Amino acid sequence: MMKKKSITTKILRAFLLVCIISLLVSRSIMVVMLFDIQQAVRENTDPGRIDDLIDNALWLSVAVLVIIIIGTIWVARIIAGHISKPITLLTENVKKIARGDLDYVSEIKTGDEIEALSHGFENMTLDLKRYIENLSSVTAEKERIGVELNIATKIQASMLPRIFPPYPKRAEFDLYASMVPAREVGGDFYDFFLVDKDTLFF
């Protein structure tokens, strides 16, 4: 299995490569130019010719410097594109997730921290999707139980006496009862009735 390179490592390697190439090219050109100047001095060449060689060396150094700067900018743009493209894609995917699209699959294959972050988002999205499905299932079950308890409460209440006073022609007692369950359905029932003319059963 290949070890993943970090973004910092990639940037440093590219920068070092540009620097090494620049130094080698500059050194090679300077060696050639200095060799020409040294040879011109040994041969007692005209001082104007030596000045021309020095001017050429300076202009060539400037040209090489400009080429090195352009090359560095070009490499920097390539690296910036390599870094920003997956980050832009990841940002778009995070916006989709925020809008509720939980079918995110990581398409980022950079071999660095951005790919690891993308896989982290993919795992987080899968966990979020499972959590929402579980929550929906639990909520549906609670609603079903709530409906059943509501029906049971109505059935239980319908079994209890509801007309008060139950014996309006009997002046020797007043009777009233109610039941308030602690939850939706209570376990207690009550009833009352006259066993005979003088006995009330409760």
Q: What do you see in this structure?
A:
With 202 residues, this protein is an all-alpha fold. Helices cover 67% and strands 2% of the residues. Strands 1-2 form a two-stranded antiparallel ribbon. The two termini are 83 Å apart. The model has no long low-confidence stretch (mean pLDDT 81).
User: How do the helices and strands follow one another from N- to C-terminus?
Assistant: HHHEE
In total, how many beta strands?
Answer: 2
Helix percentage range:
55-70%
| Structural shape | rod-shaped
What is the radius of gyration? 45 Å
Name the beta content range. under 5%
Low-confidence segments, ≥5 residues, pLDDT <50?
none
Q: What is the subunit arrangement here?
A: single chain
Physical arrangement of strands within the biggest beta sheet: 1-2
Give the overall average pLDDT: 81
What is the number of helical segments per DSSP (H or I, 4+ residues)?
3
Spatial gap, N to C terminus? 83 Å
Q: Please summarize the sheet with the most strands.
A: 2 strands, antiparallel
* Secondary-structure class: mainly alpha
